[in-house]
Amino acid sequence: MAKVIYKLEDDISTDIIYPGRYMATVLPTETPQYAFADIEDLNKMLNDKKAPPNSVIVAGKNFGCGSSREQACSTLKGYELIIVARNFARIFLQNSINLGLQTIVCPDAEASVGDDMEISADKLINKTSGKSFEIIPLPQARQAIIDAGGLIPYTRKRLIEKAGK
Amino acid sequence: MLQTVVQKILARASGKNHVEVGEVLEPRVDLAMSHENAALVLNQFLEIYDGTGIEAKVWDPSKIAIIFDHRVPAESKKTATNQKKIREFVAEQSISKFHDIRGDEMGICHQILPEYGYVRPGYVVVGTDSHTTSHGALGAFSFGIGATEMASVWTLGSILNVEVPATIKVIVNGKFQKYVAPKDLILYLIGKLTAEGANFKVIEFHGDTIKNMDTSGRLTICNMSVEAGATSGIVPSDEETVRYLRDVAGVKDEINLVVPDPDASYDRIIEIDASTLVPQIACPHTVDNVKPVNEVEGLKIEQVVIGSCTNGRLDDLEIAASMLKGKKIAKGTRMLVFPASGNIYREALVRGYLYDLMEAGAVIANPGCGPCLGVHQGALGDGERALSTTNRNFKGRMGNPISEVYLCSPAVAAASALTGVITNPNNGSK
Asked: Predicted confidence band at B372 (pLDDT cuts at 50, 70, 90)?
């Protein structure tokens, strides 16, 4: 079960997720402290370890628009958050798949903070309200990267194949 | 079997004659660009090789470009140390397209790539920067990727699992009015498409206005295509592309133009009459919140910024200098100018533009990304408002979540610097 910890509006940019002034910090082990740095209550909740793994943030459309900075994914991956949005900006979505951040495309999701969610391959069930919503699955090509455990192991496998030829 | 320009480019890069929209490919990459975030790419690259027993060598050091621009000169020991690590890696791997912090060759990555002839029509270009869309101005399929994806490209030389995108055709005809520029066109288009309107799609530009637009203007419109969510913007290569590559970039070898089939299939077609456009402005805090400048005229501004990969080129500095020459910037308004490259800086120096701008009260900073992304110089104070020729106005973008950024052309920025309030140059006392 996954609990909704926060709700965000449309067009949440990578500048909101991971402000540019922290971009000199690059390592995935160091980025989580700056997640949503300018949304103080959310940043505090995360840094105070009040969001257990698989906590859900529900957002509107175009989540992750803007910069290609991968810190915007690693900062959320550090808390093993699940991001549910109507849709995601392209680079952010690809970075999430590459790093293994769970992104759920669910155009009609309705949820309030504190609601319990059950997420399967094609459905998001809000256990609190009893309503269920359709999830748009990722294209097969992207699923292959997820199944491999992310782009690093996926590429490593290809590298070994190439070297073996 | 008719194809858009991006379909043709992807087909060639994948060893095919024809590709369909939605098809998944592994195109080979002709140019892979990074800036300071190469520090993260490097980390991920070494992780790919970790435990394999294979020596970590990039696939082709001549096809990798690394350009320091986001925080130059370094603003902190952390950045300086990242830059040092990258320098060592560049030397170790013999990466030749490297632009360090030097007045003779530095600049913003999206200016350096075209200026040095690193991008050619028909290339597949990837960059760890969302504004990599810029290079569509030279007829390349050019798009932004994350650092881990770049590490994968450095390893394999191809980009895995790319879906052939659908294309939106934008046809622009007519002549711009005075003080209306490519920036106004792209802001208008983003307003029309919305910030997600072109997500996962390519915007292909056509029409007389585009045909007559020089590469500088094409770089502006392709640069900001990403603000409508586009994977890339692209102007099919033509005589202007060849002129730019020969005369400006000094390219001597063969240039092969790639154009779309006349009746290629498009996702949608948008027509714009450039002659009716007026100066535009993107209001806080999204780039698609676009209005004619007249609607927000008179708003007080504390900072004006001219520069960035969007509008920091010679023609941008020229128009600003011509409007400010012999005049003074309003008291209470700071004006910061960031030429996009060392070459542009030196040429603007020789032509006297920088003298005129400084004499009017502007501060000229070194080439680089400057205040555009709020990491280095020119942060805003609480409650302050900036008018900027850059490309993003997201909350906090210029270093302070309690400030506002408005986006406009260099002419609107210059006219407003003189009055200290947002001003339409066509309404000024010229």
From this structure: very high
Q: How far apart are CA B109 and CA B99, in angstroms?
A: 9
Tell me the per-residue pLDDT of B401-413, one tens digit each, with 9 for 90 and over.
999 999 999 999 9
Q: Do B196 and A98 touch (CB under 8 A)?
A: no
pLDDT score, position A121: 87
The answer to whether residues B165 and B190 belong to one domain is yes
- Structural domain of residue B264, as residue ranges? 5-272
Query: What is the enclosing helix (H) or strand (E) of B189?
Result: helix B182-193
Handedness of CA A67, B317, B233, B128 (dihedral sign): negative
Q: If residue B153 lies in a helix (H) or strand (E), which one and from where to where?
A: helix B147-156
Q: pLDDT by residue (tens digit) across B20-35?
A: 999 999 999 999 999 9
Query: Which long-range contacts (C-beta less than 8 Å, at least 24 apart) are formed by A127-131?
Result: A127/A1
User: Would you report the helix, strand and coil content of chain A in percent, each value rounded to 5?
Assistant: 35, 20, 45
Mean of pLDDT values over B52-57: 97
Query: Cβ A26–B70 below 8 Å, yes or no?
Result: no
Tokens of B365: 């900073």
Mark whether B218 and B251 lie in a shared domain.
Answer: yes
Angle among Cα A89, A95, A97 to the nearest 5 degrees reads 100
Q: Taking residues B364-376, report their average pLDDT.
A: 93
Residues sharing a CB contact under 8 Å with residue B207, sequence separation 6 or more, in sequence order: B170, B171, B172, B173, B271, B272
Chain B residues inside the 8 Å CB shell of A15 = 373-374, 392, 394-397
**What is the nearest CA distance from B396 to chain A, expressed in angstroms?**
7
- The domain A2-136 having CATH identifier 3.30.1310.20: the answer here is no
pLDDT at A141: 83
Distance from C-alpha of A101 to C-alpha of A55, rounded to nearest angstrom = 12
pLDDT at residue A164 in the model: 85
pLDDT greater than 80 at residue A67: yes
Shared-domain flag, residues B221 and B358: no
Write down the pTM of the prediction: 0.97
Tokens 């504190």 sit at which residue? A114
Contact (CB, 8 A) for B110 and B129: yes
B57 φ, ψ (degrees, to nearest 5): -130, 135
Domain end: B272, B288, B305, which one? B272
| Interface mutation vs chain B, best among A10, A14, A22, A155, most B CBs within 10 Å | A155
Give the pLDDT confidence of B69-116 residue by residue, as tens digits: 999 999 999 999 999 999 999 999 999 999 999 999 999 999 999 999
Does one domain contain both B253 and B308?
no
